Amino acid sequence: MEWNFASAEDLVAAMRAGEVTSAELTDEAIARIERDDEVINAICVPDFDRARSAARHADQARARGEDRPLLGVPVTVKESYDIAGLPTTWGMPPHRNHLPAEDAVQVSRVKAAGPVVLGKTNVPLGLQDIQSFNDIYGTTTNPWDPERTPGGSSGGSAAALASGFGALSLGSDIAGSLRTPAHFCGVYAHKPTLGLVANRGMVAPSEPALPAELDLAVVGPMARTARDLMLLLDVMAGPDPLTLGVAYRLALPPARHERLSDFRVLVLDDHPCIPTGAAVRAGVNRVADALADGGARVERHSPLLPDLAEAATIYMQLLISGAVARFPVESLEQLRNRVAGLSADDRSLDTVRLRAMLFSHRDWLDAHHLRELHRHAWRRLFAEFDAVVCPITPTPAFPHDHSPNPMARRIDVDGVEYPYFDQLVWAGLATMPGLPATAVPAGRSPEGLPVGVQLIGPMFEDRTPLRLAELLEQRIGGFRPLR
């Protein structure tokens, strides 16, 4: 039997039953990587010698009677996580030789659960793109069409999963970086509630690995099934032992419902800032029909929904001002002159992004106050609904675009071009208030490209969208192997 596309849950069961060993699974995964990854380029830092050693140790541990949640399961890790002895570069050439001395807290947690780490997966420069290419490791291609991107910044992880390179992967998300690659590659991902999962050691190589609370950014699981997402999230979730973990222990509430017929779901497919392409709209409708057929209460409108245009503006303000603080622009004077020439009536998101590059702390506090008002509005909405279904981006995976100025790029939505970063508004809908969101496969475009949607849930009720994802998987199917 070929095991490369089996779920982590099934691999654990097979190893427990003696049907296969971790060493066999690891050798099979490495053989597949060596066969297929020359084109896909998902595994930018292979670690095969240590992987084979870890697999032998896992088999020995199981023979001694040990049984950890991920014992012996082949997995991958996004390049941006620190792994002792492997480079962490974030695709930035000045840091190509940066070797961290310690594992990221999530790498330590996952290793304690017993998996086999095959290597690290590719990212865009500085994790700052919706694609995955850089001058150190080159370009990762979409397994379904090598002329298209797998997404970013966890594009290498999504491409690896779609290609059968390990059963699970660790990713991160600030601008859809878990959800967009899952959508483009036909796999699953979960953006946890902000603050649910400790992030220490998922840090740029120029910075110390501090237990800091990040704004907007989260780390989270990627997989080929909804149940595997929960399996990995249970390993990852919890506060950093150096800070909140000194006093707090995690107790995630159960999913609100177990049966699909008990769910109350709001379905969205229109955004005031950018249209939804036909292929993605069809995916949203496919999920909505499955929900209704399963007896769920499905609504298309609600007066409780926060203003989507305002939400997009607040998100862009927080995202761009934070990004500029971490990666300063080269010429502030030129930027000030450009912003000064903008019309006061210009409310486009391009203009919002330019102005956010010059935000003062007071400007940021004003945006944060508006965020808190939106969070309160979401709390009211989730008193009436259990989840919101909506797009992740307006289109399936788009062709590679390596033009050097991302602000000048365009995204084609059914033949009409829009500013490249406007496609982030759907991802920002959950990111700005810090809500959990699960990316699930929702079929194929007419060209055969994967299409996904996201299930947004109430804050710290991550099991609710994850359970809904599992129920949808049972009704409409999930990941389909390439070959």
TrEMBL record:
It comes from the Bacteria. Residues 24-464 form the Amidase domain. Pfam families: Amidase. InterPro entries: Amidase_CS, Amidase_dom, AS_sf, FAAH2. This is Amidase. The gene is amiE.
